[in-house]
Design goal:
This protein has 143 residues and is mainly α. The chain has helices at residues 2-10, 18-43, 45-56, 62-93, 97-119, 123-142. The two termini are 33 Å apart. The relative contact order is 0.15.
């Protein structure tokens, strides 16, 4: 019986308040979004670069577009990994620091993406990014 109680206390199930559950679910969402997006950019780098050059080539130089793609890829992968680690940190250690850091870094990636969408006048894409950004802000506020 004592080992069951220790296990129960270690996982902090007694402290699963709605704010913590919401934060964990937001982290799970962004883990999926950013890891998938970052991995896609790594494995289809040439395709993504070609797409961005076509989309943004009239506004920015090719080296700047390449730099932006690499930067966003690094931000997305870093954010996704930190959000994933943050889930476990919130559950087992009652710490929101790593998850919050993941959301902040992911928000920076979203701002870079939003800038590109607005410059290219892709307003529908910008709306989607705005929804993601709002969710990230709610996650940050909720932690």
């Amino acid at each position: 019986m004592k080992s069951i109680l220790l296990c129960h206390e270690k996982f902090n199930f007694t402290i699963m308040v709605p704010e913590k559950i919401t934060f964990i679910l937001v982290l799970a969402f962004f883990s999926i979004v950013f890891i998938q997006s970052g991995v896609d950019k790594v494995f289809d780098y040439k395709g993504n670069l070609s797409f961005l050059n076509d989309l943004l080539g009239g506004f920015f130089s090719r080296p700047l577009i390449t730099f932006a793609l690499i930067s966003v890829t690094i931000l997305e992968l870093t954010s996704g990994i930190l959000c994933l680690i943050g889930i476990f940190d919130a559950i087992f250690n009652l710490s929101y620091f790593i998850g919050k850091l993941g959301l902040i870094i992911g928000s920076l990636a979203l701002l870079v993406l939003l800038f590109g969408q607005r410059i290219s006048k892709n307003y529908e894409g910008a709306k989607t990014i705005a929804v993601y950004f709002i969710l990230a802000m709610l996650g940050i506020i909720n932690s």
